[in-house]
Amino acid sequence: MAAIALFVHPDRPEALELAAGLTSRLVGAGHEVRLPPESAEAVNRTELAHLDDLIGERLDLAVSLGGDGSMLRAVTAVADEGVPVLGVNYGSLGYLTDIEPAAAPEAVDQFLAGDFCIEERIRLFCRLDDGTEVGALNEAIVEKMDSGRTVRLAVHIDGEFFTSYAADGLIAATPTGSTAYSLSAGGPILAPTMHALILTPVAPHTLFDRSLVLLPSSELVVEVLGDRPAAVAVDGHSLGELGEGGSLAVSVSDRPARLVTLGRRGFHQALKSSFGLSDR
Fold it and tell me: How many structural domains does the chain have?
């Protein structure tokens, strides 16, 4: 019997309905089901509630029912334990979520039968100068806090000063995150299974406004210059702010995300669909 966690978007009734059905089906078959507390309450199975920092222990599979945001939460909760994640798409873009809702029960059965592949995606290891450490699948961002003013940021690569930016912010992204905020800021699209680190400036006040694609062995340090503080966010979650001299170090984690693939739509097809690219 397997231990399976379900991460459900709390504001999508259809996802909650599917989660309730999957939960009953799996428990009835003798499997252990775990749910984050708010999901457990939403599907009336509070006895299955597990906190995120405990949910990945001795877990066989995590299933995300939502969009890319739900998938990011699931990966954050279980990636350090090496747990594979299956994404069911209730979002609009679905770069990370590969399975459509109607196919979810079959997809879980297919996984339990051993008929699947694992696609590894690099993650970021992010460390603030106060000792806070977090992982990220998409990106880490250092950005301005005042809407009408830029922030000054120095970039060090592998221990050497590279340059400074007066900009709205800087994005350190993975290839998976290349289709997220980095893309909106003019960054390149990379195949998600590549091993690389992307640095993209946001609205820089400089002639050098290009993204950098760096080796996965690189370490970036972004330091705040001057007295204008900067906000720090990782995969959409705020980590607080940095004052003058404060810094964020970013490198590639030695614990990748492990995503379940079942031979369905690939990255190129997702890209074509998202951008409305022609078949001719």
Answer: 2
